[in-house]
Amino acid sequence: MAQCTPAAEETDTATEALRLAAFAKYKPEFFMEDVKEMQVAEARWRVLALVDIIEAQDKHFLSVIEKWTHAAEIIIPPVEKAAILDSHVGNKGAISHIRRALIPKRKNKDLVLEEDVVVCKDSTGIYAQFIPQVDSSGIPFYYPQVHSFAFALLNPQVSCVASKLAILVSELHPGSAVATKKQQSVWRDLLKKLYKWTVTERFGYQKHIVLDVVVSYDHYIAKYQMLKSKYALKWVESWPEQTDPRKFVYEDVSIASWLICLWEQDSSTRSTAKPTFVDLGCGNGFLVYLLTSEGYLGYGIDQCSRKIWTQYDCKVDLRAQTLEPYQYIPDVDWVIGNHADELAPWVPIIAARSTMSNFVVIPCCPHELSGKKMPLKAAAGQSKYHTYVKYIKELAEQCGFITEQEYLRIPSTKNVAILGRKRSAVDCQDQINILVESGQREFIARIPDSVKNELRLAKAQLRASRPNTAE
Hints:
Blueprint: H1 13-23, E1 29-30, E2 36-40, E3 43-53, H2 58-70, E4 79-88, E5 94-104, E6 113-122, E7 125-132, E8 146-154, E9 163-171, H3 181-202, H4 217-238, H5 245-267, E10 277-280, H6 286-293, E11 298-302, E12 317-320, E13 334-338, H7 347-353, E14 358-362, H8 384-398, E15 401-407, E16 416-423, H9 429-442, H10 449-465
Parallel strand pairs: 10-11, 10-13, 11-12, 13-14
Antiparallel strand pairs: 1-3, 2-3, 3-9, 4-5, 5-6, 6-7, 7-8, 8-9, 14-16, 15-16
């Protein structure tokens, strides 16, 4: 599944500067080709990676391990979640001993794996050991090919002031943990993640972003896996556009999954009929295709048709037209603006003018109601994107919506969904009229890319036809 990339929220800028400065000191050593070993208690381990880390304390490292133990998907992406089966204080030097079950995302293909997580401490450092409870033939594809692996915080040596973070493995056979470039890349990424998370704990980072507020994770991930298996591979392999199919296919599958979960939740308290929708600025139309294929009635509008439109089923309703947003009042349940550029700020206004419409907008590039790009300055502790999200929410609230916000699990920093499905009791019609009138006076529709290309071609042909007067 595509992983979520957190968007910027309000932060302590001084602490963030220190954290970023510490990140810049990341200088790892990897031992993928050369074999390096170390003795820990009675066991002999192969060392895959080391990195110096300054001022890291046991509590910082242990906090990271605790989070990773309860959220296995952070370090093993094909895993949906970890179910804790047993937990107790360890013995023989162990700080804790937890048995967990790794629940895979592809439940119909991959096996659940039970694993012990044992944290111990001795004179050399702290070790978090991960031990699969199967023999070597039963290790699933998503798990390292090892008897066990460990993350460690090693105490400073006599001549060194820095502790070291380490990744250690007990291999099934020599080289089994690093046999492929992909395996090596996983270990490299894990060391960097361990370093960043431990540094972040040292600076007392408090999480600003809360996921799965509107739609539950379990509901979403089940829907995502179902839609991904139905649609993703086919379209990634046959994508006719010049754009990257992996980005657009998986991102739109994620968004469609979230929307369908949202609508299914709403149906428990409202009409059982499936909601209708319009997708403004629908682009390649893939989101419209997915929702239509899943039985939702709606349509998409964009300035220009795309090559891929002809490959969809005829029931997929995609309309090529230039929209004048100040005149458009839809007769649908939901108005969607997914990276809709100059139409994004209009989405809540358009929904407000319809007595029945809710909205969801996922802002991208900042635009004013005039259609012009919005010049934004990042405020203290806020990104430009966060400032634009705040602007869209304020527009929606002026229109009488009680807004909600969700960070979507898509591979983009532009991952905030703002939705309005409740309205305040205050009459906002006058304010809506003011916004519409102001926008109508100033709005200039964007020139379609196809027209821009024709103009560029015409200019090039004109230049080529002129006689060369330099001779």
